[in-house]
Amino acid sequence: MWVLLHGFTGSPRSWERVIEEADLEDEPLTPALTGHGPSWRATKASSFEEEVSRLARMISALRRPRLIAGYSMGARLALGLAVDYPALFDAAVLIGVHSGLADDRERAARRALDQERAHVLRSKGIEAFVQRWEREPLFETQRSLPAELIERQRMLRLGHEAEGLAHALEVLGLAEMPDYGPGVRRIDLPVVAMAGALDPKFSRIARAMARDHAQVQARIVDGAGHNLLLEASRAVASTLADVEKEVR
Fold this sequence. Notes:
This protein is of the alpha/beta class. The chain is 48% helix and 10% strand.
């Protein structure tokens, strides 16, 4: 059974197109992550590690095979689960994943950036933040997508509370994530690291993970940028289906 983790400002519905196209064995579990959705206070975690533990407790009740996939922030949480709770899983798909910051100066700079973003959310509100977020260079490749896809994603983002997303930045931001780089080398399950070819930073990370670990396979999707759930849902669906067949 798949567990699918969305990205920052996303929601469980971010996976809908992938699920429709993948023809999976079972209906996946798609939890809302800390800070996201109308009920975020009920599942509020106070640290990255606490959110990983919360998800692990939820997943441990599922039947095997247990398969984990995540996009961006969700991929970082999925990596944390694979490193800290390897016995729970049979395979993982990590889309646009980062293994964490080892350099203290980089961590401080990222924390300052996320604190500034959280301030925008609290002082200017969700609409102003989403307008700014959508102008991030990371999402440049999405501007050529059909208008209805862009609008659907925007409505998902606007459905969150500003305080919830600010909390997510302060708890699940890259600066708050442990450096899982050393832990990746200890993973003993099949992992697919996916990235869009038009997303050079995360393509480089995926290839480096595959180069350094025999259990990791890199899949680089031509013509797509960072958000493969939106830009290349069929490629993601095909990867999930392939991984599911391999572990059964």
